[in-house]
Amino acid sequence: MKKGIHILYYITVVMSALVGLWHFFVPWMFQWHEYLPTQYENLIVGIDYTNYCFSFLLFGLSVLLLLLGKRALHFNGEVVYFYCFLTAVWLFRACLSTFIEPWPLEPIPAAAVGRLIASDLLALLMMVVSVCLIRALKKRA
User: Fold this and answer.
1) Which of 19, 17, 23, 1 is nearest to 128 (CA)?
2) Per-residue pLDDT averaged across 2-26, rounded?
3) What is the 8-class DSSP label of residue 107?
4) From CA 30, how far away is CA 14, in angstroms rounded?
5) Tens digits of per-residue pLDDT, 80-123?
């Protein structure tokens, strides 16, 4: 398989892991709790649980794919399918933020546009890797 796809595989998985790790700190960085009324404790806990579970799953799956990179690049079907699932997650995120519900430009427009471009680029790069892996997997079968 082309060396470029190998490099692209690792770049995309590391970027995904970094986003998952970063997401653990998003509520604190952007002070989410200051925007929510304190009497809605169930809402606050629910938002925290959702964020932490998403962060853990995104980070964990990305790290597992990083550790199993050799197997994916040697066309182990199960690992390739997990990479394709992670690709689907990023494609869903990209479609959601691009077409369905764009991120608000307030308070910092550059940050919102930067996130949009980065997530779309990551989804596109992961799609390229996924297509190459699936094609190679089909040739071997």
Assistant:
1) 1
2) 95
3) S
4) 23
5) 999 999 999 999 999 998 988 777 777 778 888 888 999 999 99
